[in-house]
Specification:
This protein has about 450 residues and is of the alpha/beta class. The protein has three domains: about 130 residues, Udp-n-acetylmuramoylalanyl-d-glutamate--2,6- Diaminopimelate Ligase, Chain: A, domain 1, CATH 3.40.1390; about 200 residues, 2-Layer Sandwich (Alpha-Beta Plaits); about 80 residues, Arc Repressor Mutant, subunit A (Orthogonal Bundle). The protein is about 50% helix and about 10% strand. Helix 15 crosses helix 18. It is elongated and about 100 Å long. This is PucR family transcriptional regulator. InterPro entries: CdaR-like_regulators, PucR_C-HTH_dom, PucR_C-HTH_sf, PucR_dom.
Length: about 450
């Protein structure tokens, strides 16, 4: 336990110096223990065999609720508990044992003394003698870890415990391995995300090219550096907008973001956050790193569990955008609202969101050919333009003619020609089918 850590890392002594720690009544049962071990994360746990639940360098908090006063021998299970923590190893242990559990207090003192006299460098053990809000301490540690990480301006990619823990939570929920709302809230508490009025889910997809419009693809080192810069930009945006944010990786190119909102204007909060993110990225464009990305939003959520699962909905939007965006110039005015607010929603895609996901070339060619094949010839483009215009439900025939720059009689003549070519009256259903075929052609052909 004598690891002194690295500059910029949070140590056990930093945690003990936090205001939430100093305001509580506690004593250090292992005064010889070094307080210089780095703290990677905090973990609240009551399992008597905790090793499998930990990854190392955690500051562990526990009420030792499984160690009841009616247990015949408390010292032996406590020794096993501490040995498991040693095996990980963790950075420190803080326990709350109140006056109504005198036997457990006595056993804890005895075990700590035995470890102290054993000659080994002991695990720091802190005893809270009065009730303490672990959530306040864990949130303070979270903020300290984030501040230290943001302050690290070195070029090396330092360990990011916040990102690692958040990534693990996101991936466990999305994979279906974690489906308990209570457990998700417990895991989110140290991150400062539990108990919000509403949550919003954003998925950020990093581009794999060196810059927008470039054909040069980023190598592994470039992708790692770009992700690092982008994650820090997300945190800077959260700080600027006073928004609590969970930031973790959901796939190789996607970063999941869950915002905890206390406002009644979630869409405005999302917009403020995304605009702040754009500013933060602009400021970070140095050393050849130019993060470019798209952001998509899921639906509003009332729980942390639902918010994380909504990241999948946001990811579906991004999957559709992969095909739509390279062809966006074919859809006049499309995406203007998303560009203004800084993120995409499923509603922005309309039917294109579904058409973009059709991946059977044979089916695509069959449908387009069957619907649009009759509209061949020298006037094909004129007739297609008519179909696009009349497919708008908000325009009258006069407005359609004005939009096309033709007279109403010319418009009606072209509509009759379309009907003769396809062999059907242009009912609303036929118009929508032809328009669907045109959109499919725009996306895939």
């Amino acid at each position: 336990m004598s690891d002194t850590g690295e500059a910029g890392h949070v140590r056990v002594s930093d945690v003990l110096a936090l205001r939430s720690f100093q305001e509580a009544e506690w004593q250090l049962l292992t005064p010889r223990a070094a307080l210089t071990s780095p703290v990677r994360w905090v973990h609240t746990i009551d399992d008597p065999r905790p090793a499998a639940l930990l990854q190392g360098k955690e500051f562990v908090f526990s009420t030792l609720s499984r160690f009841t006063e009616d247990t015949e021998d408390l010292e032996e299970p406590l020794g096993i508990f501490l040995a498991e923590l040693d095996s990980v190893p963790v950075s420190a242990l803080a326990v709350e044992v109140l006056a109504d559990r005198p036997r457990l207090r006595e056993a804890l003192h005895a075990v700590a003394l035995e470890r102290y006299s054993g000659g080994a460098d002991p695990l720091p053990i802190v005893l809270f003698t009065e009730q303490v809000r672990f959530v306040d301490i864990t949130e303070d540690v979270h903020q300290l870890l984030m501040a230290r990480h943001l302050a690290d301006e070195s070029d090396r990619e330092s360990a990011d415990p916040l990102f690692e823990v958040s990534t693990q939570l996101i991936q466990e929920v999305l994979s279906g391995h974690l489906s308990s709302a209570e457990q998700v809230n417990q895991r989110a508490q140290p991150l400062g995300l539990a108990g919000a009025a509403e949550y919003r889910s954003l998925m950020l997809r990093l581009r794999t090219t060196a810059r927008r419009g470039s054909a040069a693809r980023l190598g592994p080192a470039g992708r790692t550096r770009t992700k690092h810069v982008t994650v820090n930009a997300v945190r800077t945006a959260a700080s600027e907008t006073h928004t609590r944010a969970l930031v973790g990786q959901s796939s190789d190119s996607d970063i999941g973001i869950v915002l905890a909102l206390d406002t009644r204007e979630p869409y405005r909060s999302e917009t403020d956050f995304c605009r702040a993110l754009g500013r933060a990225v602009a400021k970070s464009r140095s050393s050849g790193v130019v993060p470019t990305f798209e952001v998509a939003a899921g639906e509003p959520s009332a729980s942390m569990l639902r918010a994380i699962t909504e990241l999948d909905s946001a990811q579906q939007v991004l999957h559709s955008l992969e095909r739509i965006l390279p062809r966006a110039e074919r859809f006049a005015g499309w995406g203007a609202a998303a560009a203004e607010r800084g993120f995409w929603r499923a509603a922005d895609l309309g039917v294109l969101g579904l058409l973009a996901r059709v991946e059977d070339p044979g089916a695509i060619n069959w449908f387009v050919s069957a619907q649009l094949g009759p509209l061949a010839g020298p006037d094909a483009e004129e007739l297609r333009a008519v179909i696009r215009a009349v497919a708008s439900p908000t325009q009258s025939k006069s407005e359609v003619a004005a939009h096309l720059g033709i007279s109403r009689p010319t418009l009606y003549a072209r509509l009759r020609r379309v009907e003769r070519l396809i062999g059907h009256e242009l009912t609303d259903e036929v118009i929508h089918t032809l328009h669907l075929a045109l959109l499919t052609e725009d996306l895939h052909c």
